[in-house]
Amino acid sequence: MINTYNAAVEYVHSAAQGKMIFGLEQIQQLLEELGQPHQELKLVHISGTNGKGSTLKFLKSILNTAGYKVGAFTSPFIEKINEQIMIGNKQISDSDFLEEVNILKPSVDKLRNAGTDPTPFEILTALAFNYFRRNEVDIALVETGLGGRLDSTNVVIPLLSIITNIGHDHMNILGDTIEEITTEKAGIIKQGVPVISGVEQLSAIEIISHTAVEHEAELYLLHRDFNFEMLENLSEHETFSFKSPFSRISDLEISLKGEHQYSNASLALMAADYLSQNCSFALEEEDIRKGLKRTTNKGRFEMISKNPIIILDGAHNPEGIESLCKTLQKYYFDKKIKLLFSALGDKSLKEMIQQLEVIADSITFTTFDFPRATKAKVLYDIATTTNKQFYESWEQALVEVKKDVKDDEVLVITGSIYFLAVVRERVINHFK
């Protein structure tokens, strides 16, 4: 038996020596040992490259506002592993996490003794399903960890599948082309289960459409079957109207910044519409309005200080960087942009840095203690701008960039989500 929360976290992290192993056999064995908890849940399954987390949080907030008990399984976490497993707006507590790990431990140990070693993500997936079952959630929103087809969450038969946009990420695993990546993401489409998608590339649309037809799954496609229209902003919120086969709503407001959030919110609205029309979830227009407006997403264009202006954004691939740059140009076109950037080595570093150089007045590169983190000097050498510097110590880099942020400047800390996990608490505590 494991006696402490910290020991439980270490038990999960040490599984399979921290390896990423793709396939469904191990998770299926583990869930069978637990009595197939996922089969007792109503679920929505979400895949895609960018926007999965925001789409999930919009939908969760709508369902929470309507009074439903909503489980959410997401990844990765920013500050604490408990963030990945939530019911309503509450993370799983330390004591509940410890209890759930002890419930799983005999099954995990049995598989290990038989020569199968579940990975940390597989253990967390099984833990989440069992926690949601034991707490009798009304619905669980489940985000894929990586890809879709071979992701350990892909054991579920959901009420509804959602595929957000497709971009260039994890190409060493999912493939080098949009077509290869889309094929992996489309692997979550199940026989007869409707799918909602926000993909935009023609080739991606063709693959998802073909896969949906093969599985007799009704497809709702953004800009074809449902849509949004951006409205003039008269407040600090983004304002838009939404139209689907089931509803029309005007003057909706969201607090999350960036034009890409209209798409994410629209995917959530389409999902809410479907659940209301076909799955007996009673959702009133007021629930939808309040739920959208209340939605927050840690580490996604998150303003952690207003004076000086400091923003954290986990833009970790070219598409994420593009959205970040557009949002900065929209809201802070009249200010100088100072960047602190760190990234993992398996990303499209040159493309990301080139985009940042267009909008940045200065860039500071750094690194952090993570197996795949890129050295600061490597990032520095990729950059062509003259106003650049680097520090191999992120602590020193942080001290230097926030030393003197002027009124006409915005400091943006961006790159790897794992980097934000390291620096976020330090920055917040400094400006409290």
Plain-language structure description:
By secondary structure, the protein is of the alpha/beta class. The chain folds into two domains: 5-294, UDP-N-acetylmuramoyl-L-alanine:D-glutamate ligase, CATH 3.40.1190; 302-430, Protein-Tyrosine Phosphatase, Chain A (Alpha-Beta Complex). It contains 15 helices and 17 strands. The protein has helices at residues 5-13, 25-33, 52-65, 94-113, 120-134, 171-174, 178-185, 202-214, 260-278, 285-294, 318-331, 349-359, 376-382, 394-401, 417-430; strands spanning 43-47, 70-73, 85-87, 90-91, 139-143, 160-163, 195-197, 219-221, 227-230, 238-243, 248-254, 302-306, 309-313, 336-342, 362-366, 388-391, 409-415. The strands form three sheets. Strands 4-3-2-5-1-6-7-8 form an eight-stranded mixed β-sheet, sandwiched between helices. The chain has a six-stranded mixed β-sheet with strand order 12-13-17-14-15-16, sandwiched between helices. The protein has a three-stranded antiparallel β-sheet with strand order 9-10-11, covered by helices on one side. Helix 3 (52-65) packs across helix 9 (260-278) and helix 7 (178-185) packs parallel to helix 8 (202-214). It is globular, with a radius of gyration of 21 Å. The model has no long low-confidence stretch (mean pLDDT 91).
